[in-house]
Amino acid sequence: MQWRDNGLGFSPVTIVLHWMVAALLVAILGLEIAMAAGPERAADMAADTGLAEVQNLLGLVLFLVSIYRFYARITSVHPLPVGTPNPVEVIVSRSVAAALALAMVLLPAAVWLSRAAGGAAVVLPGGHALPRLIDPAPGLKALVDTLFAIGGTAFLAGLALHLFGAWKSHVVLKTPAVQRMLGKHVEL
Ligand code: HEM
Question: Residue 120: phi, psi to the nearest 5?
């Protein structure tokens, strides 16, 4: 089995992790929306159904998977582009992809740090809590929250660009880039 990407294609590990991260992100954002449904309901729902704990667990899995994924991204060759894209677009799309992979490490870490600085623990289903990284520090929490807001906005902008690139190559340029990311063998 091919474990690492090479010039000819993505490895099955990369493909599985890519879609796993996308699914985790959708689930985490979906839970965030569900919990923000209303101020009173949010507290009830979180307490009754343990949604916050499930979200914490998904965030932990995302964080751990993303550490390997970012390492693999920056230490593997990015496969040759399909079709004949503009070289500037290739550089931009690869840089955005690497930045997205890095954001999936930094943003969960910022949440963990912010919770600890606010005196709160990251509680998982079953009541297990992750160790608090630091003692409560309100000033640091405000700083981390600001950085999270900036980083989160930049991440969403990068993701929008990434999705636009996928749409453009699939619908406009009609290259098999998306099919390749779904595991199809593509002749270069
Ligand atoms: C429906 C959602 C998505 C679609 C359609 C999509 C599509 C693609 C495609 C077609 C490629 C291959 C680009 C190439 O050939 O060079 C790719 C690569 C990549 N995508 Fe996405 N993507 C999606 C979601 C995401 C998300 C949520 C993230 C990260 C948060 C992400 C991060 C990456 C990264 C880092 C790569 C480089 C390969 C790797 O190391 O995994 N993508 N994506």
Answer: -110, 150
- Is 147 a pocket residue for ligand 1 (Cβ < 6 Å)? no
Number of folded domains in the chain?
1
Please enumerate in sequence order all residues whose Cβ is within 8 A of that of 3, keeping only pairs 6 or more positions apart, or say none.
Answer: 11, 13
Tokens 């910022």 sit at which residue? Answer: 110
- Which atom, in ligand 1's list, is nearest to the CA of 103? 30
Tell me the CA–centroid distance for residue 114 and ligand 1, in Å: 28
Q: Considering only CA atoms, which residue is closest to atom 27 of ligand 1?
A: 22
pLDDT (tens digit, 0 to 9) for every residue of the chain, 188 residues total? 889 999 999 999 999 999 999 999 999 999 999 998 866 655 555 555 799 999 999 999 999 999 999 999 999 999 999 988 899 999 999 999 999 999 999 999 999 999 999 999 999 999 999 999 899 999 999 999 999 999 999 999 999 999 999 999 999 999 999 999 999 999 88
**Residue 177 Cβ < 6 Å to ligand 1:** yes
- Domain range holding 48? 12-181
